[in-house]
Write a structure and sequence with these properties.
By secondary structure, the protein is mainly α. 60% of the residues lie in helices and 5% in strands. It has a two-stranded antiparallel ribbon. The longest helix is centred in the middle third of the chain and has 28 residues, at 105-132.
């Protein structure tokens, strides 16, 4: 299930591309509010933590259902239940037999942002090459902290904070509560300092000569 989940994440990130930082910000902020509501506040309305219950409740194995319908016995009737919805499961470091879960959305949605900034870094490099007429040396590009490096570091720190919080509070934590601020806020700050925020926010891949952004896709 973990291998299938990772494959789905890679496929989704490879196929879906966010057009601008504005769309990325609105999408991640909306999902953050959605995640926080269902983890922290759903129990006040539905008398149970809906997100945790859905994520931890095993699903019926289709082989088991078919075996009962056709009145078959043996191994098919005793097929194990499936761990659905799809998620990544990690053994807990402090509690034997317990597992930590990471939803695929907590990987895909920040991953789409990382893919966007990686494309923008490639766009800036291509624009510089067109303007200078030569490939920039390692000191001019490689020594700088790119938007991708900033967001990737933020994702790592956000995921680490979410893991520590789950272990400290002994309760389910919405990963996006930590991932979104740690990835989005440093990126917005860095773009503002570098003067790229306005372009990244609306039309990041429009070149001065009117070329389409598709020419700079990676």
């Amino acid at each position: 299930m973990d291998a299938m989940g990772m494959g789905l994440c890679v496929t989704f990130i490879a196929l879906i591309r966010l057009p601008s930082l504005k769309v990325s910000t609105l999408l991640l902020t909306g999902l953050l509010l959605y995640d926080v509501f269902w983890v922290f506040f759903s129990s006040y309305i539905f008398t149970t933590n809906v997100m945790v219950k859905v994520a931890t409740r095993p699903a019926e194995n289709p082989m088991n259902v078919v075996a009962r319908r056709l009145q078959l016995g043996g191994a098919m009737r005793d097929a194990p239940k499936l761990s659905l919805p799809a998620k990544l499961v990690f053994p807990s470091m402090h509690h034997q037999g317990h597992f930590s879960m990471l939803g695929l959305g907590d990987i895909v949605m920040p991953g789409l942002l990382l893919c966007f900034v990686l494309r923008y870094d490639a766009y800036k490099k291509a624009t510089l090459v067109c303007q200078m007429g030569q490939v920039p040396g390692p000191r001019s590009m490689g020594s700088r902290l790119t938007y991708f490096h900033c967001s990737l570091l933020g994702y790592f720190l956000g995921l680490l904070t979410a893991t520590v919080s789950a272990e400290v509070f002994k309760a389910a934590q919405p990963a996006l509560l930590y991932l979104v601020p740690f990835t989005l806020l440093p990126l917005l700050t860095m773009a503002y300092v570098k003067g790229d925020l306005r372009r990244m926010w609306s039309e990041p891949f429009i070149a001065p000569n009117g070329k389409s952004g598709a020419d700079f896709d990676v």
